Amino acid sequence: MVKTLSTQGLEPFLSGIAVVQQLSSEQQRELLRCSQLLSFSQRSILQRSGTPHHHLYIVVAGQLEMCTVSPGGDELVVAVFGPGAMSSWVALFHRQAASRELVATAESRVLACPAATVKQLLEHQPELYPLVLEMEGLRFRTALNRQQLSLQPERSKRIAGLLLMFAEISGDVTATPRVRLTAERLAKVAQCSRQMLYLSIKALQQRGWIEQQYGQILIHNRDALQSFIDS
């Protein structure tokens, strides 16, 4: 079930969001006035594959998952966006329909900003374009890194790289970022069985680099994981 909540009081939240924080207070209030704060009690699709990109989504609480379908028909999570993270700005300018789905997990709250409003903001504030391009460029680099990861023959290094990739895309900049994916979903992305995933996670955890919890994995040492991948 989806509820629409008031956007009143979200100004402090917006002031901490990349790109949006560059807007004036009046522009931020106008963005909130034109947007909707959506609250989800269960897993729900926000953007369906095959439909136009109609909103910019900013995660207030919970998370969004970008999903695709494997050749075998399984749903694969290719990106996870946590609080403060956003869907793609550039996608709003695509003429082609979305090729993946955006899904809000249960107990999430998401600010839905209409595409027309976001485009108008950029037209009035062209100095925001470099910031948008920088952010989208980082995502593109992450996507290329993922393609490179698929060629990594060592399973544990491949999984370590996937954890870092999900943490980077999620927008979690805390000292201990969380990758909120179940073992089943992570195993599908890693293209291995849950048993093989368990062995790799156990090995990384024994070194103190990560910690597996219910429905999520904490990353305690990004640098150590990256050094392990590069070794």
Explain this structure.
The chain is α+β, with helices and mostly antiparallel strands. It has two domains: 2-127, Sandwich (Jelly Rolls); 150-230, Orthogonal Bundle (Arc Repressor Mutant, subunit A), CATH 1.10.10.10. Helices cover 39% and strands 23% of the residues. It contains eight helices and eleven strands. Strands 1-2-8-4 form a four-stranded antiparallel beta sheet. β10 and β11 form a beta hairpin. α5 packs across α7, α5 (155-170) packs across α8 and α6 (183-190) packs across α7. It is globular, with a radius of gyration of 18 Å. The termini are far apart. The mean pLDDT is 89.
Highlighted features:
four-stranded antiparallel beta sheet; 2 domains; transcription; 231 residues; 23% strand; Jelly Rolls; cNMP-bd_dom; Arc Repressor Mutant, subunit A; alpha+beta
Radius of gyration equals 18 Å
Q: What distance separates the N and C termini?
A: 47 Å
Could you say what the CATH architecture of the largest domain is? Sandwich
* CATH homologous group name of the largest domain: Jelly Rolls
CATH fold naming of the largest domain: Jelly Rolls
Task: Kindly give the count of domains.
Answer: 2
Low-confidence stretches: none
The total beta strand count reads 11
Q: What is the structural class? A: alpha+beta
Largest sheet: 4 strands, antiparallel
The strand line-up of the biggest sheet is 1-2-8-4
Global morphology: globular
State the CATH class of the largest domain.
Answer: Mainly Beta
> Number of DSSP helices?
8
**Beta-strand content:** 15-25%
- The averaged pLDDT comes out at 89
Kindly state the percentage of residues in helix: 25-40%
Order of helices and strands: EHHEEEEEEEHHHEHHEEH
Domain Cyclic nucleotide-binding: 19-122
Keywords: DNA-binding, Transcription, Transcription regulation
GO molecular function, one term: DNA binding
GO cellular component, one term: cytosol
